[in-house]
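Bench log. Compound arrived from synthesis this morning; before running ITC I wanted a structural hypothesis for how inosinic acid sits in the protein. Inputs:
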Amino acid sequence: MKVVLASQNKKKIVEMREILSQMGVEVLSQRDVGVNLEPEETGTTFEENARIKARAVMEATGLPAIADDSGLMVDALGGEPGVYSARYGGPGLDDTGRWQLLLRNMMGKTDRTCQFVSVICCAFPGAGEILVRGECPGILAQAPQGEGGFGYDPIFYLPQLGKTMAQLTPEEKNQISHRAKALAEFQIEWEKGHHGTDQ
Ligand code: IMP
């Protein structure tokens, strides 16, 4: 089955395409189908935002559409930046500016536990959907390390591997990431054929 990836984030698209194509899902980009949509993420949960993005692209194309809404939740900050991870600190900041701000906001805090969260929604024409969630626990590093990945990866330390997410190869990240876990759940639901009913 063909599925349109409802994302404009090039690095996220690469990760999702890699994992989904291994499942035998034929992945099209919004560009492939000539749809240039970036719906406003007005939800307050990852679930709401993933659904907003997937449904908008499904409605515009008439094809099944899959979206990831993801972010970093830091326990000492009450779950921030959470759904606002991409917008943390306002529009003037890039990825580096955002993790620098986060490290500043964490100064003096001893609990540095956090988790990456990915919620994947696949919306099907006719109102059915699959909605799944994956989480990857870690520790906020004191300083960045590594050049791989994107977003907060340079400061997301995985104690069991002794590396940050940005020090992993793409293949290694795709084995353990929140997005990989959500997509593994997605595969189970997809294979059950449970995508014909609304949730
Ligand atoms: P979204 O496009 O609204 O889902 O925003 C996701 C944001 O969360 C990204 O811009 C990153 O800041 C952060 N994020 C999500 N997944 C990852 C990841 O795998 N590594 C690092 N940062 C991530």
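What the model suggests: The CA atoms of residues 11 and 67 lie 14 Å apart. The mean pLDDT is 93.
ITC booked for Thursday regardless.
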